[in-house]
Amino acid sequence: MKAVVNMPLIRRAAHGRKRAARLRDEAGNASVLLIGYLLVIMLLLAAVTAITGAYLQRNSLQGYADGVALAAAKSVSDTRVYGGNAALLGREAATRQAKAYSQQEVVLRGGISGVSVSPAVLTPDARGVSVRVSADIAPPLTGWFLHATGLSWRIEVVGRAYR
User: Fold this and answer.
1) Please, are residues 38 and 137 in contact by the beta-carbon 8 Å criterion?
2) N or C end: fewer C-beta atoms under 10 angstroms in the chain?
3) Are 27 and 122 within 8 A, CB to CB?
């Protein structure tokens, strides 16, 4: 009896072996892809953390600037305000009060350094004062890099208060 060989069946079997070998060669590609995705996610989380930290440091500095402006605005007595005098605030007195407040020990959020306070600027009607405060910040997860390279993020905020 003569053996009948089914050629399409043999070709399919050979193709199946080649395919299995090719799939074995690609083993581990999913783990490389997974590691890549995890690195991207971790970098995004680090960026969000740094941006949030910088925002919180800016808010802390804004509160400090508002305190300096309030101290400068309080440089005039209540009797002058309610007495109706035209010149309610004096620039020298406001600047002196702002400097006195800025020299007090004020707790700022970590990562803020090099705080500088500009002289007080009066509003045209002399009933308010604004003060510019600038500082270097080092957001979380970037502070080590900024410190090692000597770079800094300098931010400036304006505090305003009215009497």
Assistant:
1) no
2) N
3) no
pLDDT tens-place string over residues 125-146 = 777 888 899 998 888 888 778 7
100, 117 Cβ separation under 8 angstroms: no
pLDDT at 62: 93
Domain limits, the chain: 52-162
pLDDT digits (tens, 9 = 90+) for 48-65: 998 999 899 999 999 989
One-letter amino acid of 33: L
CA 9 to chain centre: 66
Residue with tokens 């808010």: 59
For residue 122, list its beta bridge partners: 129
